[in-house]
Amino acid sequence: MLKFICLTLLAATASGQGTGFPCEGRADGVFADLEDCTVYHLCHGGRDYQIRCPDGYFWNDDVHSCRLADIAQCCSGQGVCEATSYAEDVTLLAGRVQTLESDSADVQGQVSSLTTENTALRTQLTSLKDRTNNLTVENVALRTQVTSLKMVAAGLQDQLNNISVPIVPRTTISVKVVSAGFDDPGYLGGRAEVFVDGVQYAMNGRGYNLVTVNEMTGQMEHSVRFDTHGDQAAGVALRDFIRGVPVGRIVLIAVHDEASTFSGDAMAELNSLGAFSPDIAHRTSWAMISKKGSKTSWFVEDERDRYAGPTVIEAEIPLSI
Fold first, then answer.
1. Of 21, 71, 91, 283, which has the fewest beta carbons less than 10 angstroms from its beta carbon?
2. Residues 6+ apart with CB under 8 A from 140
3. Where do the Chitin-binding type-2 domain residues begin and end (predicted)?
4. Can you give the residue ranges of every domain in the chain?
5. pLDDT tens, 260-289?
């Protein structure tokens, strides 16, 4: 026991005399402090040496040594620490062991749960890898099919390119000419339309509206208008234009609104196209389908008095092939 106390004195802090603990009249030995469980007193030769237990330890007077704080059961501030038996110490330690074992079991359960989850995740990952591999195989197969289809399409395109479709040339064209004076019912303000195979080409303005068509191809070449009501020079311009039309061209003419005022200079040229009555009256409607240089079987000319229009003529014209 003395050896233990000496070792304790070497490891503890001794306060020497003046601690207030009554060692006088006491036999030499170790004693509990009356108020502080973390210290005890060594009385030797009537002198007091206060010694402090290590951190986390309380003095246990039953075994005359410092014990773990949760085992020592010290009643600090209420007098001397109560002594505990070794059986009580064992019970307390057993309780702590059970608590630790319970905590360990909980941790083990969590570890097992995490292990199970990890296994499930690994299984899912393996499944995803398998699906990815399958998709890769399918993608390769689809690319192969696409390449094959492209080759087939290229072959079909080559066949189409090698197919020659005979082009049947047109042999006739259908023409329709509409002329309306300013006061004709349903056409107030006048009208001049020239249709070739259903397409309207006339400029549809006041005066004479002319459209020339190639007699071999059936294509429209010129669409012009001459305002022989409002422009004094329009009659001469109309005359010169007709003179410049090549022989053989198809000439389609429609009067819009009023065209008689300054048309005198063009009468001879209109007569050369086969016209019988080009010298029309005020706001008369007049239309003609003709060919320059010769009078044909499909030649048409017609006229309606003011308020009696419109004048509408049609013809199926054979092309010169």
1. 91
2. none
3. 20-74
4. 2-85, 172-318
5. 999 999 999 999 999 988 788 999 999 999
Please report where in the chains the tokens 């097992």 appear, as a residue: 112
Q: How far apart are CA 245 and CA 241, in angstroms?
A: 7
- pTM exceeds cut of 0.70: no
| 2-85: CATH, from 3.30.70.260, 2.170.140.10, 2.60.40.420, 3.30.470.20 | 2.170.140.10
Which tops the pLDDT comparison, 251 or 169?
251
Task: Give pLDDT tens digits for 75-94.
Answer: 543 434 444 455 565 666 67
The pLDDT of residue 293 is 94
Per-residue HEC secondary structure of the chain comes to CHHHHHHHHHHCCECCCCCCCCCCCCCCEEEECCCCCCEEEEEECCEEEEEECCCCEEEECCCCEEEEHHHHCCCCCCCCCCCCCHHHHHHHHHHHHHHHHHHHHHHHHHHHHHHHHHHHHHHHHHHHHHHHHHHHHHHHHHHHHHHHHHHHHHHHHHHHHHCCCCCCCCCEEEEEEEEEECCCCCCCCCEEEEEECCEECCCCCCEEEEEEECCCCCCEEEEEEECCCCCCCHHHHHHHHHHHCCCCCEEEEEEEECCCCCCHHHHHHHHHCCCCCCCCCCCCEEEEEEECCCCCCCCEEEEECCCCCCEEEEEEEECCC
